[in-house]
Q: What sequence folds into this?
């Protein structure tokens, strides 16, 4: 059974520190920018770049992950045809990018709402959209997740 969130809306994420209650009796700290960075830089061919005061992660010239300027949210590669259902299913975690970025295969998330394993999976999946399938298979194993 899941506990209640300690915030009532996504805008509350900016007004106070958040600890989310998971299974009864268990708590977890929110995902940090440094944890996200470690996952992204641990992937083959990935590197960090600063663009207009924003930290971004690329494979070649393709951005697969980006932080907001305040590092409270991330944007990441996600299949265009599946993003609306992701946002609709968990609007407290995910949101669509701004109008200028809707043309990309991109979705955004509040870091404080993500669990560490979920964050890791989202980043690896975004990275996998940018690299050869052979490399994905080598890194993730033959099952390709």
A:
């Amino acid at each position: 059974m899941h506990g209640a969130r300690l915030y009532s809306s996504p805008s509350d994420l900016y007004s106070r520190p958040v600890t989310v209650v998971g299974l009864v009796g268990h708590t977890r700290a929110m995902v940090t920018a440094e944890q996200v960075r470690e996952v992204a830089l641990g992937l083959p061919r990935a590197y960090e770049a600063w663009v207009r005061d924003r930290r971004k992660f690329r494979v070649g010239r393709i951005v697969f992950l980006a932080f907001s300027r305040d590092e409270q949210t991330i944007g990441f590669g996600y299949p265009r045809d599946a993003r609306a259902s992701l946002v609709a299913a968990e609007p407290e975690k995910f949101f669509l990018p701004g109008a200028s970025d809707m043309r990309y295969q991109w979705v955004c998330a509040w870091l404080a709402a993500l669990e560490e394993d979920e964050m890791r999976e989202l980043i690896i999946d975004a990275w996998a959209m940018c690299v050869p399938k052979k490399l994905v298979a080598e890194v993730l194993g033959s099952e390709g997740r």
Notes: The beta strands are 19-21, 27-29, 46-51, 54-59, 62-67, 73-77, 94-95, 106-110. The radius of gyration is 15 Å. Residues 2 and 22 are 5 Å apart (CA to CA). The chain has one domain: 31-140.
